[in-house]
Amino acid sequence: MASQVLGLEEETGPNPGESELAVNPFDGLPFSSRYYELLEQRRSLPIWAARFIFLEQLESSPSGVVLVSGEPGSGKSTQIPQWCAEFVLARGFQKGRVTVTQPYPLAALSLALQVADEMDLTLGHEVGYSIPQEDCTGPDTLLRFCWDRLLLQEVASTRGTGAWGVLVLDEAQERSVASDLLQGLLRDARLGNLPGDPRVVVVTDPALEPKLQAFWGNPPIVHVLGETGRCPTPVYRDTVPTDRVEAACQAVLELCRKEAPGDVLVYLPSEEEISLCCESLSRDGGSLEDQGPPPRVLPLHPGCGQAVQAVYEDVESGARKVVVTHWLADFSFSLPSIRHVIDSGLELRSIRAESQVLRPISKCQAEARRLRATGILPGSCLCLYPKSFLELEAPPLPKPRLCEENLSPLILLLKRRQIVEPGECHFLDRPAPEALMQALEDLDYLAALDDNGDLSDLGVILSEFPLAPDLAKALLASCEFDCVDEMLTLAAMLTAAPGFTRPPLCAEEAALRRALEHVDGDHSSLIQVYEAFIQSGADKVWCQARGLNWAALCQAHKLRGELLELMQRIELPLSQPAFGSEQNRRDLQKALVSGYFLKVARDTDGTGNYLLLTHKHVAQLSPYCCYRSRRAPARPPPWVLYHSFSISKDNCLSIVSEIQPQMLVELAPPYFLSNLPPSESRDFLNQLREEMADSSTGSESPSTQELGDACVLQ
């Protein structure tokens, strides 16, 4: 089999002069001259030497599993899928096709574009991709790149391998929830017992190799040598800079003034800092005219969409590329032209309960970033932190997302498909029992579970939505409160485009932003932003003038359409637009509280210090919150509902709206209020509940009657 597959490449040969005779076996068309140009580049990759060994192991592995271990930049993510496609082609498509998972949707999109180009095939036909709000595949698709969470949903729904014969789990060292769970489900299923003789290829960084080898029972391993070339010695700063963005910008400008050849890759913790850095470099790049054309500054983060391909394009003017990114490019997005790396050493990551934490990267990530600058030409790696910072504070490996993220969506999926009880599934690293219990408790509060711990009727409906359970609950509650149109918009915006990504750059931009703010808070402001975006004709210039992410807003528009179709398909009631009316304002608040009562905070002293009811953390409003950007700020709202909580040097609540405690008491489950951690706020709410119960004895007030209609959702 391996020699038969190798014949596919040997048949085409390296000689471009034969391109008129050689035919692409995947589509039957002659190879283009570009195919041969890219083939020469592919053969120079470090992984190419392991091609024959990989195909032999893929064919002969007793367990059907093959591990591939290699450093970033060796060509694993682009070449392994193509060899798997050749393997499946040699089987005559008799045993499924190839699916390649990626931990990030943007990586799946980018790799599909790149691999289709290398294989000389049409994207959307033989090579495709599946990411949220976009499925670019067809009946002839042989090789599909897919976000791992989408594949997890497919495996859960079919309880088998689905349409794939070879599954490539790429970037396993990223430890995403979906990738870890997919490995657990596949190991429990035992590939030999599944129909179609499927194969699984797990691609990882060498740091995770021993753990994966033990987990899969010592499968064959294909080792890939690192890239040959000069790997720079990292240069450390004596202290951590107070302004990371400014320090990174100055380092880039200094490289440009030295005229050091090669492109630059800058690592910052968050999308906000990426945006600020790009703006600053674009503004200051004009001062480098004496050193040649100004650098082309390119952001690289999940909100970039298809514009991400610009990082691979050659700059015609010969200008240097400066790519500004974060953890997304630790292992994905290998850029051969990079010769200089500037590393902040920090990352902003989401953890449980939609919180975020600013923390040091792992030693494995730091090494991966340094290796990005490996090449024949001399490069550099500047670390914006002392060496002791990495040695003392950085963990050896990235933390498994399964042990950090909110597990409620995962448990909802497992229970919906009745695959396995969460406590019985095998994991590379088992989540803490208290994390599983917290997720079950949260789902119980949301009325997603019945008395036996199985999904309730409401839980079944919640599991149908591609949303977090609390947001899906709020959307369902909008059916009761007659504000579905507004809640559809808000659900899409909270998922795809949660707000401004940077501070305003000038007074004019600040004024344009204030015009989009709504008196009721950030949630209503998001609806207002979306409606203004649609009225502008989805104009990109309009977004740029206000500091809005055009690609993310377009994604929100697509997601809103998908959510509307889903509600129509399961025959949920809809409502007419009424945004701005007094009744709609109250109804929208009720719908939000019905889903987000777990995320409420109270101003404890009247100065904007908010105590989270469920966690007893103290936080302030985000600088982008509409309550803080008003010209004459009044007293902060005493009770707020928030979307996310960032744990950093300035703990912040993001996407915040004022609520009334009476509404929280009426809509939240009584046992939720009783189970809150001890605090003055809990005592106040329980006392308020007793007073409201006493006042309603004997006669039901109109407001109580109205809220009582929502009991079907509680």
Automatic annotation (TrEMBL):
Pfam families: HA2_C, OB_NTP_bind, WHD_HA2. InterPro entries: DEAD-box_helicase_OB_fold, HA2_WH, Helicase-assoc_dom, Helicase_ATP-bd, P-loop_NTPase. It is found in: Nucleus. Its main location: nucleus. GO terms for molecular function: ATP binding; helicase activity; RNA binding. Residues 694-706 have a biased composition (Polar residues). The keyword Chloroplast does not apply. Might be involved in RNA metabolism; it is missing helicase motif III and may not have helicase activity. SMART domains: DEXDc (SM00487), HA2 (SM00847). Transmembrane segments: none annotated. This is ATP-dependent RNA helicase homolog DQX1. The lineage of its organism: Eukaryota, Metazoa, Chordata, Craniata, Vertebrata. SUPFAM superfamilies: P-loop containing nucleoside triphosphate hydrolases.
